Amino acid sequence: MLENRKARHEYEILKTYTAGMVLTGAEVKSLRAKKGSLTGSYAKIINGEVYLLNVQINPYEFADNSEYDPKRTRKLLLQKKEISQIAAYQEQKNYTLVPLKIKLEGNYLKAEIGVGRGLKKHQKREKLKQRAQERDAAREMKFR
Predict the structure, then answer these.
(1) What residues contact residue 83 under an 8 Å CB cut-off, 6+ apart?
(2) Which end of the chain is more exposed for a tag (fewer CB within 10 A), N or C?
(3) pTM of the model
C-alpha cells in the first residue's frame, strides 16, 4: 500500500519487524484508499512502547475532520521481546528505526519497520554502481 522507497536507499536495513497500529476508523479508510505518505517519518521508543512519528495520513473525505491532525503520533503494537531487541539496537551508535511500508494483511493494517544504519554518500553511490553493473551483466547474458 504505502511504501517508503527512499528508506532502503538512505539506510542499510539490518532487521525488519511487522507491527500493528493504533488507528481511528477514518484513518483506516484513508489508508485503504492509499492517501498518505511515509516520507520523513521515523519510529521511536518512548516509555517502553514504540511510536510512529511524522507519518502523513490524509483526512478521509467522508469523515468529520474538524479536529484531525494528519501527522499525529501513532502507537505501534509489538511484543515486549521485539521491543527489547529494538532497544538494544538503538543503544548502539548510529542505529535508527525507520518505517518501510504500511501494508494490508488480511483485514489488518500493519506497519513494517526496520532497524537500520544510515549510509554515507559514497556508500550510496557505490551501491548504485553495483546495481547498474549487475543489470548490464544480466542484459549481456540475455542476448548471448
Answers:
(1) 45, 48, 49, 50
(2) C
(3) 0.83
